[in-house]
Amino acid sequence: MKIISYNVNGIRAAITKGFIDWLQQANPDVICLQEIKATQEQIPVDDITAAGYPYQYYYPATKKGYSGVAILSKIKPNNVVYGTGIQHMDFEGRNLRADFDDCSVMSLYLPSGTNIERLDHKFMFMDDFQTYINELKQTIPNLIICGDYNICHEAIDIHDPVRNKTVSGFLPAERAWLDGFMKSGFVDSFRHFNKEAHHYSWWSYRAGARGNNKGWRIDYNLVSDSLQHRLKRAVILPDAVHSDHCPVLVEIE
C-alpha cells in the first residue's frame, strides 16, 4: 500500500495548480490531506473520482475556509471515523480515520501555536490526542498516522535550530511531546530510511525560503511499531509545488 500525506493549504487552490494531474501521476492507494479549507460541496469530487479515487471522505472545520482534513482512496475502507469524539478537536476538523483489512490510516492536522492562546490549545490537543491514541491502539494496533504535526522533532529537521528554538513548532516542550509520542509505539517512517539533514516538508512563502531550502520537516507518516517490519520505502516529494508544504510518502508491504 502506497500512502501519501499532503497539507494542500486549500484544496481548491491546489487544484488550480495542477493537483489532480499530479495525483494521477503519483498514484498512491490512499492520500491523506490536511488544511483542505473547503466543504465537500465546494470540491470537484467527480474530477477526483475520474482520477481514480472513488472513495472520498471530507471532514471540514465548522469555520468556513479553515482547517479540515480528507482521505481519498482507491480502496474501499471497511469503516470511516470522523473526528475523535473530543469536541475541542473536532469542531476544527482535524482528525479522520479509514480502517482497512490489516491497517488503519489517519489524517491528522495538529494545531499550530501562533499565539499564547493557540499554543495553550495546541498543548491541550497534544495531551488529549496522546490519550485518545493510547486507547485506540487497544483495539486498532496497526495505525498509520499521517499528517501535519506542526512540530519539528529534532535539530536535523529544521534549517536554523538555534534561531528557532523559541518559535512554536520547535519549542522544547513540543519536541519532547513528539518524542514521547513516537516512543509510545510509533516509527518515524522517513527517518527509518533516511538520517540525513536538509530534508524538509514546509517552507515559508517569504524571502525565497523554498528556493534556498530553508525549511522545516513538520509532516510525518508515523507507523505503529507492529508495522515496522513491513516498511518498504518512505520519501519526501519536494517537487510537488501546489502548497507551501510538500507531500510525504510511505509504502507498506
TrEMBL record:
PROSITE patterns: AP_NUCLEASE_F1_1, AP_NUCLEASE_F1_2, AP_NUCLEASE_F1_3, AP_NUCLEASE_F1_4. The active site is at residues 109, 148, 245. Residues 4-245 form the Endonuclease/exonuclease/phosphatase domain. It holds the Pfam family Exo_endo_phos. The keyword Membrane does not apply. Keywords: Hydrolase, Magnesium, Manganese, Metal-binding. Signal peptide: none annotated. The record marks 219 as: Important for catalytic activity. Its cofactor is Mn(2+); Mg(2+). This is Exodeoxyribonuclease III. The lineage of its organism: Bacteria, Pseudomonadati, Bacteroidota, Flavobacteriia, Flavobacteriales.
